[in-house]
Amino acid sequence: MDGTRTARLMDGTGLAGRITEDAAKTAADITLRTGTAPCLATVLVGEDPASVTYVRMKRARCRKAGIESRQVALPASVSTGALVDTITALSQDPGVHGILLQHPVGPHIDERAAFEAIAPEKDVDGVTMHSFAAMAFGLPGFASCTPGGIMRLLDEYDVDLAGKHAVVVGRSAILGKPAGMLLLGRDATVTYCHSHTADLSAIVREADVLVAAVGRPRFIAGSDVKPGAVVIDAGYNPGNVGDVDFETARERANLITPVPGGVGPMTIAVLLAQTVEAAARQLGVV
Ligand SMILES: Nc1nc(=O)c2c([nH]1)NC[C@@H]1CN(c3ccc(C(=O)N[C@@H](CCC(=O)O)C(=O)O)cc3)C=[N+]21
């Protein structure tokens, strides 16, 4: 190489595997002690191929970890009322310990209303106002899975966040916004960037920790990465392409998550860990 350095990769697949093994051990213990296996209900609206694939992956990962899953598939045309009723029934069903409503639902549906039908103790995907508030206040509760996975990755690689400038690109309710709040809770100085941000490049260039969560393939150029930065690519785009131009970013970053194999597997690992924790609580094991 011509004097440039190459970032160390943050191995989400490896860490997710270890978290999943722990979840599987706890799931087996819960099943042995109570006669009931932890159970995650997945709710999918419509047939978007990417969503179908993600939900299938989540269910397969559950099965491998000894977590049962119950699949609810609803037509794209479902009304907000019918979706809320379905989720309310799962919230009241003692055989279900966690509920995941796959985002996005169709534009005619009030997604917030649907999320809020998830009972707080079953919100293993961390999407309700209750979970968001607990997370923002630094109280115990279930983090939104992708931001929770990002924090575990940062900790695994001993990234010191206090006083660092963390720049979050994207402000969605279950990814960018909570990711920034978690970083704030760890004493980072947080800047949110979004579609109205003026001179995005100038802000990104100041980032000690960069979280890309916009959903636009290779949106962040490597030339905008501050030398020595920690780059977390939370973008999921068709074809497993991240929001960061990986090949150029890795020449400047100190640590970087690959896509695939970075944040994605961590999202699912956190979902499994939180499902097992929810089941343990509901079954009186802890
Ligand atoms: N309520 C809700 N909660 C979510 O957590 C949620 C959601 N809705 N909607 C969609 C996004 C997307 N998402 C991913 C999960 C795993 C990978 C993942 O494991 N990706 C693999 C590659 C996947 C593959 O091999 O196809 C990787 O990055 O290595 C990616 C993306 C969760 N999401």
From TrEMBL:
Pfam families: THF_DHG_CYH, THF_DHG_CYH_C. CDD domains: NAD_bind_m-THF_DH_Cyclohyd. It catalyses: (6R)-5,10-methylene-5,6,7,8-tetrahydrofolate + NADP(+) = (6R)-5,10-methenyltetrahydrofolate + NADPH; (6R)-5,10-methenyltetrahydrofolate + H2O = (6R)-10-formyltetrahydrofolate + H(+). This is Bifunctional protein FolD. It comes from Streptomyces milbemycinicus. Residues 10-125 form the Tetrahydrofolate dehydrogenase/cyclohydrolase catalytic domain. Homodimer. Signal peptide: none annotated. Residues 144-282 form the Tetrahydrofolate dehydrogenase/cyclohydrolase NAD(P)-binding domain. Catalyzes the oxidation of 5,10-methylenetetrahydrofolate to 5,10-methenyltetrahydrofolate and then the hydrolysis of 5,10-methenyltetrahydrofolate to 10-formyltetrahydrofolate. SUPFAM superfamilies: Aminoacid dehydrogenase-like, N-terminal domain, NAD(P)-binding Rossmann-fold domains.
